[in-house]
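Fold this: Ornithine cyclodeaminase family protein
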Amino acid sequence: MTTRILTASDVLSVFSYEDAIRALAGAFACLQEGAVVMPSRGIVRIGETQVLTMAAHVGHVAPFVVKLSSIAPRNKARALPLIHAAVVLLDGSTGRILAFMEGASLTALRTGAMSGLATKLLAREDSTSLAILGAGEQARTQLAAVCAVRKIEEVFVHSRTPSRADCFARWVQSQSSSRVTVTATAEDAIARADIVCCATSTASPIPLMGEEHIRPGMHFNAIGGVDEVACELPPGALGRSYTVVEQREAALTEAGEVIEALRLGVTTPEQLVEIGDIVSGRARARSCAEQITIFKSVGVAIQDAAIAALVYAKALDAGVGVDVSLTA
């Protein structure tokens, strides 16, 4: 018996946002139907570094997926990636190890695809402008996923590190025909944006922008922040927005904006809408053009499970990767 080894380039070679968004929609529908096994995320803190374990099984025939990842905030100063990860797929019946995948690339791609699904469901159909706050690897996947579901003509970029913003802007220009503007502040970036993706590694409870800069009709994907204290969006904004999360239980303990909004009394747990309820028709999507919508993501294991299973199946079909015997 062999195990398929998939590198980051292997994962990317078989990945498409359209397929990934469909897979995630199906996975979250399964979650609402009770067809998902997903234990709580395990977290070990070693100084400022977090080591996380995430596991899930979606549906009845899919593989069981386990991801081991680390988040090291000081890695930027070391010229190392913020996130390192590996993903293991096991046969749900026999427990046989089917595949090992490089996990950081898969994490970035599935996080982007998750914002793509949220944008498809929540952003105005006529949205044409996008602001991206942050200029790392996640910013690239956010852009690609949003462009897969909306016709983006103009992109505004802001990063706390101007050189990274300039580098990212050049990459955007090489990948699309959208006009790109680098801004000096986050407020400048969102001033003309219909859709905003927050993809930062902030650890601060101080939001990236003031609440007064959030206009009617905007849609936000907030996927960054390194812990449950970090806030990319002003928590008060949740009180006047339609706020969607992956899983209410996870958001209540891990999403900084949600935790602070509850403390301030501007929202309640019952007002948080699970995205699976929208996918399955139990809850509405955007109700009107003026509504402010927020998708707050903390990342849950079924995202990894859905995308890893998809990538594995496509890699088998395409003959991508290397088979090795772990028992040889």
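The mean pLDDT is 95. The first strand starts at residue 3 and ends at 6.
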